[in-house]
Amino acid sequence: MHAFNRRQFLSSTAAAAGALSVPGLLPGQIHASENAAKVASSPLLRGQAEHVISIWLGGGMGQMDTFDPKAKGDPKNRKAGSYYDAIDTAVDGVQVCEHLSQTAQVMDRVTAVRSVNHNTIDEHAAATNRMHTGRSVSGTVTYPSLGSLIVHERGAVSDDAPPYVLIGYPNVTRGPGFLGANSGYLYLTETGRGPAGLSRPDGITADRQGRREAFLASLRLSAGETKVRELLDYDDAIQQSLKLSGPSFNRVFDLDREPNDLRNRYGGEFGQRCLLSRRLVERGVRFIEVSHNLNFLNGAGWDVHNSGILNQHKLIQELDTSLATLIVDLEQKRLLDKTLIVITTEFGRPSGFDSGGGRGHQGSSFTCVLAGGGLSHCGAYGQTDPQAKRIEADPVSVPDFFATICAAAGVDWQKNLFAGDRPVPITDQGTPIAKLFA
User: Fold this and answer.
1) How far is CA 223 from the centre of its chain?
2) In the chain, how many domains are there?
3) Same domain flag for 32 and 96
4) pLDDT tens for residues 135-144?
């Protein structure tokens, strides 16, 4: 059993008792306290996932147009509601948007967490930071991203692979923050080739590379030891680059080795990114982020203000094809229970339409998605009102969502890290969704 200190015991029991005794609390708030009490009275939750594939939908996915459909609205007459019809899924009572038809068939391996919420200003940069680090921007501490937290605690699965790969453009919100460069990422922006800098230029033979490495080693010996963290991090980065620059690791980026039929099922560039993420999992990468904010499909990506919503279905269909194929592909290779798939976005969208027929921003209630990872999936968790604006049951804060991911990936979500001498809770006091670990 997990040992609880006096503070944890008092806080958990007080939260549960207080929620049930104070009049006027919303049902969702009571459910949240019940979940916290259930977790506090159980052993430390720890899942079996060895890898995480995190799909980032930059711009803000509208929940009622994807995984939390409501009654259909009418943008022309400014009637609030979903933009598309809803369809049934493999889970009784759980529906999704009509353009998620392939994902609907595998929803028994998925949980759409419909009650995620945060109080960060509904602005892209601030919300992107919140959904990557679990915290608001601080003037004193640069917090690490979720990917960096997990690789800091678990490391790489294999010594022959980097622990953290970003398929998309680099950004400080994806970075290691106060954890240092060892918990950082390797990134690439296209699937046609590996990360820049890991392949030798055409004019550099193996012998010449060997001479360069020998010269570098002699420089290290002459420089002597150092305790300067920045220099040590730089040296570690060089060593990892040398280890990964050979043909062995770079073969993972050769998608032509995959059957044409499978590549076609994954779909376009985003699908190929998802296929590459599966290959990186096989190679031993712990955490992979895959960006899906390809604006050219509808001119706006997931940020569907005004006319950007007209072709939103193309984004949803691409997500549907790639996600469903990834789930089935991992399952067929016996990797789904070991690989947690996560879908996040900055915020959701209100059910009402703006003057141009699109939608604004909404952080008070939105949907994030979990799949695989050995969790006890239920299709959907949390309940929102008919406008997907107010949470009616089982609210999940961003720290709660992060705690769920950490627990699934075998990370102690109650642990403190340290920014210098300052203790920093890994998940900002989040509590995992106990139902998914039943």
Assistant:
1) 41
2) 2
3) yes
4) 998 888 999 9
